[in-house]
Amino acid sequence: MKLEIEGVNSLGQGLSHLPDGRVVFCTGALPGETVVARLTMEKKAYAVAEIETVAVPHPQRVKPSCRWYETCGGCQLQHASRSLQLELKSLIVEDSLRRLGGFDLPEKISCLPSPVQWGYRNKASFPVRRTASGETTGFFKMGTHDIVPIETCPLVCDQAAQLYGTLRGLVQDGGFSAYDEKTGRGWLRHIVVRASTYGSGLLALLVVTSKPDQEGMASLRDLWRYLQSRQPALSGLALSINPSRGNRIIGDETVPVAGTDRVHECLGPFRLEYDGTSFFQVNTAQAARLFDYASSLVPDGSRTLELYCGVGSLTAFLARKSRAVTAAEIWPPAVEMARKNMSGNNLTNVELRLSPAEKLPSDPFEGQDCLVVDPPRTGCDGEMLARLAGTSIKSIVYVSCNPATLARDAARLQSAGYQLVTSSVRAFDMFPQTSHVETVALLSKLNTEHHLDIEIGEDELSEIDFSKDATYGEIKKYVLDKYGLKVSSLYIAQIKRKHGLIERENYNFSKKENQRVPNCPEEKEKAIEDALEHFGMI
């Protein structure tokens, strides 16, 4: 059948409609194209199609550079030119703000290109699995946990790619007991490689299921010597212990093997350091530009509160603009490194707090002028948003890695008196060749032309919905109304866990050993995923 491609969704899939009005998602199709496709899945509200031929290609369609592009799930837009990728990412942000947030955007949102299109990633995580043909490593095939055994990735910087290649060879030769997701057996789960872009440091982090004994540590030190003989720039080897059965990569305990566990990086005018387990933007050059713009939205001399500060990358830029910065982070090693980073850059106006955003006590919110947030993909915590209505905070700078949750949170903040300054919204191409996009936006408590000072009483405040996510009941109702399907809380929990939305132990799981848990049927899985996307949770 022929499909006229009308646009793209946030996953980079082409969008079209069937004659009966259902939307159809077509991977690899670009807006304006006519494709001949076959349906691979049909549901009540949507369908999925696979391209057979491109009858009328987009003038900016290009040949993908990576030979694993068609099967690997890492990239979604290699078949689009650089300029078209930027245009599509702008459209993804605009669509989220209009459709999910209800915002009127009088101007187009520009997307700032990355200075580097290939080899920009300073970090990559490669799952290791046991298959019928032996141990292998690579990336997951799109939409599955099947390994595509790639030899290298053109998005990863040279040093990290070479280190992966060496470790990959050892895996392929049976040098490790690879993890089996179905049985939970095996030792090596992931290979994580990290490299500095403008500073120094090259780390190998092996994510394993258990801490090795003395004999095992001796073997790992032999591995260290072998890796250094192949790549003298290697500065550290460590283990991350993760015995859990979920999708989380990094475990709670890190065991050094040899060398240092730190990477030293130059980010704009600042020299920072981080370890193998801490969050750090993977595109160093573009991160400096994003942080520079985000900090420019903070009024000079502000008293600034920053949440989700990590190792202090953005904090350093904020300290340069602010009278004082209070920065909070939940991960203890990151707070420790943030303190060292502030001291190393002689930034004495920063106070660091070890606390999750939603549990931060009231005093850091008091007397602040500006709030800066850079939350995970799930967005800001609802309880934290609810606290802003009664504070002195006049403006919010929101750094987002998920346009859908940015739109959701910005809409909720309107109820607390904050308006989205649409002219401030900028998209940043942090991840070229993929559909992912970072966004920076300013929300102001006062209209720049007309404003009224009002007070919100407790009765009115109690009527405002600041819930972070849809409840299980809301998800069940959405699926029942739209698809006519009844889904259990267990099925919803499974799909949320699949997408990384459940971070705590699920109380629905049986405590019995070897308990058989029914897997969510594919039809219900797709319906639940549609509900999660509808509510801006994925």
UniProtKB/TrEMBL annotation:
One of its GO terms (biological process) is rRNA base methylation. Keywords: Methyltransferase, S-adenosyl-L-methionine, Transferase. It comes from the Bacteria. The keyword Methyltransferase applies. Residues 1-53 form the TRAM domain. InterPro entries: MeTrfase_TrmA_AS (IPR030390), MeTrfase_TrmA_CS (IPR030391), NA-bd_OB-fold (IPR012340), SAM-dependent_MTases_sf (IPR029063), TRAM_dom (IPR002792), U5_MeTrfase_fam (IPR010280). GO terms for molecular function: rRNA (uridine-C5-)-methyltransferase activity. S-adenosyl-L-methionine binds at residues 281, 308, 329, 374. It holds the Pfam family TRAM. The keyword Kinase does not apply. The active site is at residue 401. PANTHER family: RNA M5U METHYLTRANSFERASE, TRNA (URACIL(54)-C(5))-METHYLTRANSFERASE. Belongs to the class I-like SAM-binding methyltransferase superfamily. RNA M5U methyltransferase family. This is 23S rRNA (Uracil-5-)-methyltransferase RumA. The lineage of its organism: Bacteria, Thermotogati, Synergistota, Synergistia, Synergistales.
